[in-house]
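Table S7 (text form). Paired inputs.
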Amino acid sequence: MKCPACGSHEHQVLKSKGKITRELLLKCEECGNVFRETVETPRPLEIRIIISKFEESLKKWVSFYPDEILRVDDILEVGDERVRITSLENKRNARVMESMVEDLISIWAASVDIPARVGVSVDLHGRVLSRKVEVDRDFTFTVGDVVKMGRTIFRIKTIKTLERRMRRGFAYADVTKRVYGIPVSERRYDYVLTMNVVT
């Protein structure tokens, strides 16, 4: 909106009325001219959101304005729950990293208010011990850590995150998909995951 007298885009809203069609009384901050403008307020769109909670998926609906932009990894408030966007599906049935709301048909998300569930695989010389553990999302797995899980003590060799495979460094449980280890004969360990095993 620009001032009809001087063309400036700097203005102050003096009065606003209406919901869908808003009538504005504006004052130009450059020349002081007072003028009226009518603007259309877009209606929010209801978009389907599928929230993953381990093996369970819940379908809900969320409201956004058509010109809002959503991105993968954005955190949304859905009711009384926080979720992280994991994927966006547009009207061409393509998965995209970001999109305007008006182009979306589905939002895929994961709850961040529940513990992270991480796979653990230990190579027992030909046989693989495979379990899932639930830990706090800010728990860190570090390559080289010695871990006790049940009667097995193992050293973490590789961490598979949502984006890559790591042979050194650490990753938060929030982004870790699987931890790979090899058994060790050490009696000392950095932490115990026995009580965190769910499957």
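Next pair, protein 2 of 2.
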Amino acid sequence: MFARIMAVVMTAILVTVVCLSGVFWITLRNRQIDARLDYLISEAEDIAYLAAGLNRSGLGSLWGDSTQDSLNAKAEKVNREFGAYIAVVDRFGNVMDNVRTAYSEDPEFVNSLSSDNITDALRKVMSGETIRIRLTEGTAPTFTVGVPFVQNNSVTGAVFIQTRAQRVESGLDRILLMIVFVTVGVLVLSGVAIFLFVRHALRPLKKMKEAAGNIAEGDFDVRVDENCGGRELREVSHAFNTMTKKLQGVEEGRKEFVANVSHELRSPITSIHGFAEGMADGVIPPEEHPKYLRLVAEESGRMSVLVNDLLALSRLERDDAKLEMSVFDINEMLRHAVIRRINDMESRNIEISCEPETDPCCVNADRDRIEQVVINLLDNAIKFTPDGGKIVLSSRIRGDKAEITVRDNGCGVAEEDRDKIFERFFTADRAHTAGKGTGLGLSICKRIMDMHGQSLRLLDTDTGAAFRFTLSRAEVQDGNLT
């Protein structure tokens, strides 16, 4: 990932720098050409001024005075700097030029000059226009500048300077080379700076990757620094630590669950094994066998309940788990649940009452699953209700929902356990009766209610504990369930 980020960033910088360098090069080139053409026009204007003085006596006269010497010196200077062909033409068609000098220095250039182009340029200049033209005809491109010279507010002649485009554009190669060096330097410095920046910015991700590897090996104690990097990385680091903390909690719950299940299984297995060996070895007399066989049956029942709970939770958590929906009276189910557990409550002198708001109270749900919820909640209440206590089962209608509550006056749920009471591996009763239960009953209930799209929650109570779940109502028409 680091290499890909570097490649993308460097590509973007390369494209940007190349584009900017190209723009800079074109701008600088055009400015240099314009500056040199401006210089040539300035020189042409000086020659035109001098030629205007000579024009009073005619361009064809001898150039022996000081004005003529100045004009010759100016022309020689321009020719030396640009190897230019210089021509001065008056309105009478008289021409003064340096064609011999230009030809001796660069005959190919002089031969490439076009009389048609000069005629077209002359026509423009004689109309009072100052020109600068780049021509590509002939063996090599040329630049032509022309200025008129004026006497008594009228154009009396023109000055032309023609030179190879190469002489005007020369020297740009050095500038281009300098731009290339600057561009390469910028790319190198940018690459180093970005490399250091990206490596520093990605350091938290590298540590997070190492931490993820430790988690994969089963070490859930690792944490990453939440104060490194930008806001997004800090948020990711915080989420990572939160995930790790939850995984650590799940792992601790799993270990505790395994320990609880092992204990719950080991206890009845040990009892069954001991009783069976005692009867087989004759340690337990034959007349005591019925008594111990009943104990074996009870311990077998304990194991059966535990295994059934594990199987039930496993089935409920399968992706293909389905509900068999039907309409039934929840109040009738509450009464049947009380009848099934009446012996357990009478043996401990626990008072039980059903308090429906309306009767019947018809709901639409999976009857067997909801019965499992009611029995689990009732068993939970019986477990934590002291002898002589009281349990209340109630139902009421709230809009299109039916609310069913199972309430007891037992020891209640400790404050620190309230947020964890429905967790799969949390043993809610450890705060009450250590070593009993595996924490599966309420997890099963919560899973069933989630499958129904309904809620199951622990209510706030002054004494004891109260659990309430909701179901969708079903209407009764003419004594029939709908």
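The chain has 13 helices and 14 strands.
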